[in-house]
Design goal:
Blueprint lengths: L15 H7 L41 E2 L5 E2 L7 E5 L2 E6 L4 E5 L7 E8 L3 E4 L2 E3 L4 E4 L5 E6 L1 E10 L11
Antiparallel strand pairs: 1-2, 2-5, 3-4, 4-11, 5-10, 6-9, 6-11, 7-8, 7-10
């Protein structure tokens, strides 16, 4: 995409996703950097493990947290993972592993999801394929859930084009 100029009165867009695209951030042109902090998923590679969760440990309650921000939905199931603190590949059980995107981080508009792996994904209860776009409502929580397979480099971002995974410190 070639960035469009900002016109009098704004970006010439009727919604936030179009505004981001009009400013050239969805697919940046040469010399324009992407927006930092575009990924709404926190710990999308599972590298943060402040609870010291041990891979494969069965949960003792429903919705029990494992790796930071990720929780196992069904009591007695577990999240397994391989890798290191540099990045992990997580395996979701049949009941699922999920993360809630906080409402305060959702501006409303069209979003795109991407991840690596074989797991099945839902956002807000609707099945999503890699690269799918969908609408999120402003100031409303959204749940990203993975079931029965591997997943890593999870990214949900404003716009219609999935960009490379954003690695954040």
């Amino acid at each position: 995409n070639t960035p469009r100029p900002v016109v009098a009165g704004g970006t010439g867009a009727s919604d936030a996703a179009t505004a981001v695209e009009n400013l050239g951030f969805t697919t940046p042109a040469a010399g324009i950097s992407q927006l930092s902090g575009r990924n709404l998923v926190i710990n999308g590679t599972g590298r943060i493990n402040q609870r010291a969760y041990v891979s494969g440990t069965a949960t003792t309650a429903a919705n029990q947290f494992t790796l930071d921000r990720w929780f196992v939905i069904t009591s007695g199931q577990n999240l397994t993972f391989t890798g290191t603190d540099a990045g992990r590949v997580m395996t979701a059980p049949a009941g699922g592993v999920a993360q809630v995107i906080d409402a305060s981080n959702i501006v409303g508009g069209t979003y795109v999801i991407n991840w690596t792996g074989t797991a099945t994904c839902t956002v807000g209860g609707t099945a999503r394929a890699k690269g799918d776009t969908f609408t999120l409502t402003e100031n409303t929580n959204a749940t990203v859930k993975f079931t029965s397979g591997t997943f890593s480099e999870v990214q949900v971002e404003l716009g219609t084009v999935a960009t490379p995974f954003e690695r954040r410190s």
